[in-house]
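Reminder to self: tokens first, then the designed residues, so the page reads top to bottom the way the pipeline ran.
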């Protein structure tokens, strides 16, 4: 009986971890001007970046705010191309996960390729 309880708990834990950190919840493309891209971290060095999307949204009490998209990059070649072209307009393909893990990046959005660069 104890064996079956532990087995069910182990399987439930495995499914939960897979769903939370490895299941791709969504995919898409975001466009904007690359604000910055950096390599940072204490233990796990990850690639992080931000693009500023065109257009403005309504902020707090009448103020205007720009749309920002913060993302992580898992491919060093993609990071290098972004790093060498800071300030340019990019169309970035990303995958959205339900949670972030330290060795993949600080955000739930992971850019896996560059669709277009202007």
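Designed residues (118 positions):
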């Amino acid at each position: 009986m104890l064996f079956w309880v532990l087995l069910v708990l182990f399987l439930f834990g495995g499914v939960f971890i897979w769903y939370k950190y490895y299941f791709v919840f969504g995919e898409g493309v975001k466009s904007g001007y690359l604000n910055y891209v950096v390599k940072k971290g204490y233990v796990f060095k990850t690639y992080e970046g931000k693009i500023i999307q065109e257009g403005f949204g309504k902020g707090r009490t009448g103020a205007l705010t720009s749309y920002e998209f913060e993302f992580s990059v898992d491919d060093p070649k993609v990071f290098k191309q972004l790093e060498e072209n800071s300030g340019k307009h990019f169309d970035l393909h990303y995958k959205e996960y339900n949670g972030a893990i330290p060795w993949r990046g600080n955000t739930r959005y992971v850019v896996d390729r560059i669709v277009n660069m202007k």
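The mean pLDDT is 91.
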